[in-house]
Design brief:
The protein has 332 residues and is α/β, with parallel strands linked by helices. The protein folds into 2 domains: 175 residues, 3-Layer(aba) Sandwich (Rossmann fold), CATH 3.40.50.300; 108 residues, Orthogonal Bundle (Helicase, Ruva Protein, domain 3). The chain has 16 helices and 11 strands. Strands 2-5-8-1-9 form a 5-stranded parallel β-sheet. Strands 3-4 form a two-stranded antiparallel sheet. A two-stranded antiparallel ribbon has the order 6-7. Helix 1 crosses helix 2, helix 10 runs parallel beside helix 13 and helix 13 runs antiparallel to helix 15. The protein is globular, with a radius of gyration of 21 Å.
């Protein structure tokens, strides 16, 4: 592991702040969401955003593609969408010699920034077509493997589960999302700003802050942030406290949860903490950095059982209880 110097850390801080500011020119009222999206991007994860329609999710992702200068594709998920519509398919073409042969026609998944819009309106079979791309950054079609361009970032949006015409996302798919964020309704100040922009003559003028190569360099810097034993123990104990089958689990976790977080949850906590440390100007992560990303990492990985759903318990409550526990305080 290469030790980071002060110059590298300051450069990351400056570029991260510039990305936040530039993205904020186009997006009104979601500063925390913008920061979390950028943390997820630099940590090398994939992002799931849940909200009702019309709150600017598509604009948020398009803006990121412009300020980082990434190739952008959008897939509108519908009940009749098939895996081949996402991945691509072999088509029959005729060569100059008059002979016919198969040629692979790449689907919209071959990009750098993919917006999977309303992902839970497609069937679980189609949703699962993204799994390999999200985890391995490659796609296998008809026995052939194709590497995807780097950086590769999937941002999926979903409507609330009680919306009409939605399918529950498989647990294996959910677990591959680094963060899950929820967009609430904009406040009155944000609505005023939006109403003023509605009469503007042109789109917001956005500047490119970094390019794809610089983004990859910053992602490598994140990996070089030190995560000492105390930070790793903090993340592991947080996972165990919220895992119903663990000997360390809290009573609410055993009572209200079907499943806890997988090992990917531990990895996401550590990587998210590393990005937070860099934002704060530190080359070493601390337990507070893990705490700062705990709800984004664990919220969608804690599966409520019937009793938890019936009593209206939320995963956020269980995470909050775990963060206040004496067992975790002893580690921090």
């Amino acid at each position: 592991m290469e030790k980071l110097n002060a110059t590298q850390i300051k450069e990351f801080q400056a570029k991260f702040s510039a990305l936040e500011a530039e993205t904020g020119k186009a997006i009104v009222g979601y500063r925390e969401i913008i920061r979390d999206m950028l943390i997820c991007f630099f940590a090398g994860g994939n992002l799931l955003i849940e909200s009702t329609p019309g709150l600017g999710k598509t604009l948020l992702v398009k803006t990121l593609s412009r300020v980082v200068n990434l190739k952008f594709s959008r897939i509108q998920f519908t009940p009749d969408l098939m895996p081949a519509d996402i991945l691509g398919t072999n088509i029959v073409t005729e060569g100059s010699d008059g002979k016919r042969h198969f040629e692979f026609q790449k689907g919209p998944i071959f990009t750098q920034l993919l917006l999977a819009d309303e992902i839970n309106r497609a069937t679980p079979k189609t949703q699962s077509a993204l799994l390999e791309a999200m985890q391995e950054r490659r796609v296998t079609v008809a026995g052939k493997t194709f590497d995807l361009d780097k950086p590769y970032f999937v941002v999926a949006t979903q409507n609330p589960q009680d919306s009409e015409g939605t399918y529950s996302m498989p647990e294996a798919q959910l677990d591959r999302f680094f963060f899950k964020l929820t967009l609430g309704k904009p406040k009155i100040e944000a609505l005023r700003s939006i109403s003023q922009r509605a009469s503007a003559e042109s789109d917001t003028d956005l500047k490119q802050v970094i390019n794809a190569q610089e983004a990859e360099t910053f992602k490598e810097m994140v990996l070089n942030v030190e995560a000492p034993k105390t930070v790793r123990h903090f993340a592991i104990k947080l996972i165990l406290l919220t895992h119903p089958s663990s000997e360390m689990s809290m009573e609410p976790a055993r009572k209200y949860l079907r499943y806890g977080a997988s090992p990917r949850g531990v990895q996401a906590l550590i990587l998210g903490a590393k990005v937070n440390a860099l934002i704060a100007g530190r080359a070493t992560a601390e337990p507070r950095d893990v705490e700062a990303v705990s709800s984004q990492v664990l919220g969608h990985r804690l599966m409520l059982n019937f009793e938890g759903e019936a009593e209206g318990v939320s995963s956020a409550q269980i995470i909050g209880d775990a963060l206040k526990s004496k067992t975790l305080a002893e580690v921090a």
